[in-house]
Amino acid sequence: MPTTTAPLPFTTARLDALPLEPAYAEEMAAVLADPALYVFTGGGPPDPAALRARYERQSAGSPDPGELWWNWVLRIRADGRLAGYVQATVRGPRAEIAWVVGTPWQGRGYASEAARGLAAHLVATGGVREVAAHIHPDHAASEAVATAAGLRPTGEWKDGERRWTGNPPVPEARSSGSGTSMR
User: Which CATH superfamily does the domain covering 10-18+62-175 fall into?
Assistant: First the structure.
């Protein structure tokens, strides 16, 4: 069972995963501005006001008391810029995860590093024992990220996406804070 209702920050070799705050909306709107990011997921680039409203809802948490919404922005430690996000919907010992890295930062291993770090962080601090993701069958880059995070494809499908699952090892990520984070 998860040990906190708010996500703790964590780090990987090159990234700081910071708990989501509405204040990140403007910078993240620029990170998420490329329409190519939405080819497999649908939708389109959000404007800063819409993204701020979404971040306010996400930061408030799930209305379901048995479910936690944990969201982080990814900051590249070397230059201090935000480059994407990771998220987890945690239900007891299981978590559904997702990741997005902005187009300018793709191809550098950030998504794989972030997904591995997220899975390890969920195991180490959240009591998670199974991690899952849903991936479009034509999205080879996300399949590679899932594989790097220790997930494998299953025969299950939802909304045209294949379910990938795994039991991640502990840990690669390191908590960078103690106690609950502010939202």
Answer: Gcn5-related N-acetyltransferase (GNAT) (3.40.630.30)
